[in-house]
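Q: What structure does this chain adopt?
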Amino acid sequence: MRLKKIFLIASVTLLISVLQPLWLIFPITFGGSAVVAQTTDARKAEANGLLQQGLKQAQTSQFKKPVLPVDEENPTKRLQQLHQLLISPIADILPTDPNQRVIFVPQGELFLVPFPALQDKQGKYLVEKHTILTSPSIQILKLTQKQRQKVKQTSVKDAIVVGNPTMPSVAPKIGEKLELLPPLPGAEREAQAIAAILNTKALIGNEATKAVVLARLPQAKIIHLATHGLFDDFQGLQSAVALAPSGQDNGLLTAEQILNLKLNADLVVLSACNTARGRITGDGVIGLSRSLISAGTPSVIVSLWSVPDAPTTELMTEFYTNMLQKKLNKAQALRSAMLKLKNEYPNTPKKWAAFTLIGEAE
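A:
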């Protein structure tokens, strides 16, 4: 990629790199000193000043809460506050073409911000203006570009779709008694619908054992897992996807185990609860998404919060239809699916803004 210009607007901190045809936005941290590099006009200086004001707001109690305002009954106020803090200072230097990709490279708690759902003062969501992707770090972004070139050279064509496996038992906390995870009938319906689009048979119930899924993963070009996702905020690599147990196997496919796989998939979709969440570190989120990318896939779609069944099935069906039948790239396909559901649930972003595309759009 040819870098046209780089400038640093810090205090949140944001590093904006304008590349052709990509825009990279780095919300680095809620701390650090205010630095402006290569700012040659008054507008950039003004943006830095606004971001400094935003930093002061971020240090107040209202922004010490979790950055997942969609869990609230009326999230509009906080979504607009986050937009004012993170987007408004740079809004007029973002691309005006909604098809241009804006890649957020967040760090710390900002990885948990639902960027597509951020609202301006006119009530317009960010996804209405931009095609949005995320990456845990600039290093991972470079890696996904390499992974994309590698998977292009593979001959795998299969798809694997898992939905509502026979659930394993897990301990809610370390040392507590094991509890059976509840079944997800909505995830089963989702898997059946997606399998029909991908011309494959969904693995449901006892068919979706961890052993069976592991054996098929290296041969799959598309992997879609509609099941429980368990996040580990302490170690990250113990984040897991719930599959059916068998024999001595507990059915949990952990991020640490995924790291040891050799995947050839062009896309992995984790249509589950909280699959994007893991231990927050200085280099991004260590969890399922980074493990999948390290294992070989260039594009991962994960969720930021517990996702309602019915709208998720509709969104995912629309996503695959957009990508496979309308030939949109992954980022455009996800954006188009979000916009469709936004029109159905305009005041409920919890139903359509949970998913984020990490890595490559193509």
